[in-house]
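[Q] Does anyone have a clean structure-token version of this?
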Amino acid sequence: MPDDERELAAVEQLVSDMLERVEPVPERALRAAYEARQLRSLAAELATLLYDSERDGDLLLTRTSEAEVRLLSLANDHLSVELSLLPDGETIVGELSPVDDVSEVVVETSDDDLVVGVDQFGRFRATVVGPVRIRVTGKLITPWITR
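[A] Here you go.
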């Protein structure tokens, strides 16, 4: 490295150290920056809704105003997930495909995250209240699902 570049790097480091002492970056801003960096992979992980039985035209012909079970199908380039939202309003049953090396999913709610095991066939079950989304770390995240 030429002398000019070394001197410039030394001055930049000195200014950085001085600013850190005088006006440190707030912890909240650092967290936001780290979270924003993680958003780069989000586009590749975001699953697209392929099917929602609630929006299926055939349901309009049923006798009841609501379907017994709401079925959702979502996928991205890595995984697909089939979800059944049971009529109790709390139980979600899902199946991932392909299941290769997935051993757990995270069921996110507005209040908490629930880590749920996945069986050898890619199936999982969770009991949650309110809007949810399903995350397989590094592979898939669904949009928020409301009932």
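[Q] Thanks! Anything notable?
[A] DSSP finds three helices and nine strands in the chain.
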